[in-house]
Specification:
By secondary structure, the protein is an alpha+beta fold.
Length: 695
């Protein structure tokens, strides 16, 4: 029994050990291949000079900005880089403000919020007088401070208070930098002397174009040596990777297009006979929303407008191509209407126009709108009621007025009331947003208007088309597991290999391809020579092979070559040209190079441009070098060729800029440089970016 028990005890330890090893392996695997582990902080997406940016804070800022943008909000992934930069810059600048002791006190904040340039003017300006209602603004803020609605207080702080404080601190910081600008007298005098300097010089010019590019070979070692010598110009702050790829088209085929056309053909008869157009359109699943209102002919933007009208009421025209879709159209009715209107209204909303949230019950809104109508009929002031009750921010500050509106600009029932009535008509109209009390102020024009229903079906790729493209891409990926196989298969299928350009770890889009966070993730989870599975981007499948990984610092030779090869080639050409130049005079040197001596007069020190040559800073510098006055220079390798220079004369011209003007310009340059301070501070800061682990 004791032997068996001993085995059991040892077995338990062995099992426990295996479980422990498995757990460790799991943790380590998660550490090296996953997005975090038990011992890491999985909520921190970055650090700036040691200060953390937490994911919750980051997400809250994105959500806030999305709410501020409303329906115009860009896609979330497009907002991430901008929000990141804002938060990083804010931390960096706050550190500067703290070091300098810059603050924004309560009195100063009140002056900003309720002063001449108040951000509250839009909401608290009398539409009749244009006067900012300061007392009302202060009262509203006081009420919000006492409010128990935490969300409301937070929103007000984010929208008004925080930006006001930030702008105040930023203005003070910029003022300090700009006030520190100083230009010494000697610098002004030197600039004035330089501005007035002119030179006359003779020179020999042998352009690099005199030697064919094909005759000069540039090695990888020479590329690397050049980059190392000019490291600051080509230094990479972030890692970049590249890949080559082939595409497999998954867009709609001619078979798919014909299928959509045939589908619409089969709908025509029922579309003509149906008594309930709205219900039929809902069943048909049209891609074009039905506008159940009349639109004047000039405002109908359909290409086949005249053909649709010509068919007559109750008839159907089409199918016809409308961009990337087929459509059929039925004329439902026609009438004469004004084409432009001016109205004023009060909206009692049931639905928030931006969020889509219900804010008031339908019966409550209708009752309030009817009460407003009764009050106005009994002499109540329209402008006062607009300010007090209207939920339409687009017209509230303008007395509820919409001017120069055209047909189809407003929702259908609002539209038809405005354009079917006469000047002076008033009434309550229900729309999808709530109830409007409307008064028609003026109508202009008179033309035929039409109500048209459309059934539109996008020409989209069928499942068969997509599956065929996916299968072809998958087979290619399976057969191309090396660089050689990838290239051979691409050539066999006559598919050109394309280059991605540089991609950073936190990018969401790829040059020439567009949005694809999936492919960027793949790129940074694999190594050089790895081949991807098919990735769907738009209407095509991409199969990629990773080509280069370029760590921070000097770029890889393959990436640096297109940037610097021409400079290295010109350096080698310069050596060849200089070796052939012989003689002690310009004439002799020109003869040895089979060129002529050239001359430039009135060359300005402040200009880099040399007639017949172009921008050549080294030639300009040599022309003002007194060492070369009366004798020839050593050969000078310029940007476009090799020069040998002899200075004929260095002088000055009268009428150069006055000292005051020069001093002002130099001061302005310094102040403009101060405005670029954030980028310099950011470069000097310690910024740790972990976004790729989360997004």
């Amino acid at each position: 029994m004791s032997v068996i028990q001993s085995i059991r005890d040892k077995g338990a330890w062995i099992i426990s050990g295996l479980i422990a090893l498995a757990l460790i392996a799991f943790i380590l695997q998660d550490r090296f291949y996953g997005r975090g582990n038990l011992f890491s902080n999985t909520t921190t997406i970055g650090k700036v000079n040691g200060e953390k940016i937490e994911r919750t804070t980051f997400e809250e800022e994105i959500a806030f900005q999305q709410k501020m943008y409303g329906q115009q909000s860009p896609p979330r992934e497009q907002m991430i880089p901008g929000v990141w930069n804002q938060m990083v810059n804010k931390i960096i600048m706050q550190d500067q403000y703290d070091r300098l002791g810059l603050t924004c006190g309560q009195k100063e904040l009140d002056d900003i919020l309720f002063g001449e340039n108040s951000p509250l003017k839009r909401e608290f300006t009398d539409p009749q007088t244009g006067q900012f209602k300061v007392d009302e603004a202060k009262q509203a803020f006081a009420q919000i401070k006492k409010s128990k609605n935490e969300e409301q207080r937070k929103m007000i702080k984010q929208i008004y208070v925080d930006p006001a404080v930030e702008n105040s601190l930023q203005n003070k910081y910029q003022a300090l930098l700009q006030q520190s600008a100083y230009v010494p007298k000697w610098l002004v005098e030197k600039q004035q002397a330089d501005n007035s300097s002119v030179a006359s010089a003779s020179y020999v010019y042998v352009p690099y174009s005199s030697i064919a590019d094909s005759s000069i070979k540039v090695s990888d070692e020479e590329i690397g040596a050049y980059v190392k010598k000019h490291l600051k110009e080509y230094d990479k702050e972030e890692e970049e990777r590249t890949f080559s790829y082939v595409t497999f088209d998954a867009s709609a085929s001619s078979v798919d297009s014909n299928a959509v056309r045939t589908e619409l053909e089969t709908m025509k008869a029922e579309f003509i006979s149906t008594p309930d157009v709205k219900a039929f359109l809902a069943k048909a699943g049209s891609d074009m929303q039905f506008y159940d209102g009349y639109v004047t002919k000039s405002n109908i933007k359909q290409r086949y407008r005249d053909s649709i009208i010509k068919e007559g009421v109750g008839k159907v025209y089409g199918p016809y191509l409308d961009g990337g879709a087929y459509a059929i159209a039925k004329l439902l009715g026609t009438k004469r209407m004004a084409d432009t209107a001016k109205v004023r209204h009060i909206l009692i909303a049931t639905i928030d126009g931006q969020s889509g949230q219900r804010i008031r019950e339908d019966s409550t809104a209708k009752k309030l709108a009817d009460s407003i109508q009764t009050a106005i009929r009994n002499g109540a002031n329209f402008d006062s009621l607009v300010v007090k009750y209207s939920d339409d921010p687009g017209s509230k500050t303008k007395g509820g007025v919409y001017d120069n509106i055209t047909t189809a600009q407003m929702v259908p029932s609002f539209n038809d009331f405005c354009f079917s009535g006469k000047v002076g008509d008033k009434g309550v109209v229900a729309t999808e947003y709530g109830y409007h009390y409307i008064e028609i102020l003026s109508l202009k024009g008179n033309e035929d208007a039409y109500k048209i229903a459309y059934i539109s079906k996008a020409i989209s790729p069928s499942n068969e088309t997509v599956s065929a493209a996916n299968a072809a891409a998958a087979k290619f990926a399976a057969d191309a597991k090396s660089k050689k196989a990838f290239e051979e298969n691409a050539l066999k299928l006559n598919k050109p290999m394309q280059f991605s350009g540089e991609v950073k770890e936190n990018d969401f889009s790829i040059p020439s391809l567009g949005q694809s966070r999936t492919l960027v993730r793949w790129l940074y989870e694999h190594g050089d020579g790895d081949v991807s599975d098919p990735t769907e981007i738009g209407e095509k499948y991409i199969v990629a092979i990773q080509t280069y990984s370029n760590k921070p610092g000097s770029p890889a030779i393959q990436l640096a070559r297109p940037l610097v090869e021409n400079f290295v080639r010109n350096e080698k050409k310069a050596k060849q040209i200089i070796a052939k130049l012989k003689g002690n005079t310009l004439e002799a040197i020109a003869a040895s190079a089979a060129v002529t001596v050239q001359k430039t007069d009135s060359l300005s020190f402040g200009s880099l441009f040399v007639p017949a040559v172009g921008n050549e800073i080294k030639l300009v510098g040599a022309a003002f070098n007194k060492t070369y006055q009366g004798k020839i220079s050593e050969p000078i390798a310029g940007s476009t060729g090799v020069f040998v220079v002899k200075v004929n004369n260095i002088g000055a011209v009268a009428g150069s800029s006055a000292e005051a003007s020069i001093r002002q310009q130099l001061l302005q340059n310094q102040k403009m440089a101060a405005n670029r301070g954030v980028s310099a501070l950011r470069k000097a800061a310690s910024v740790k970016d972990y976004r790729s682990k989360f997004f």
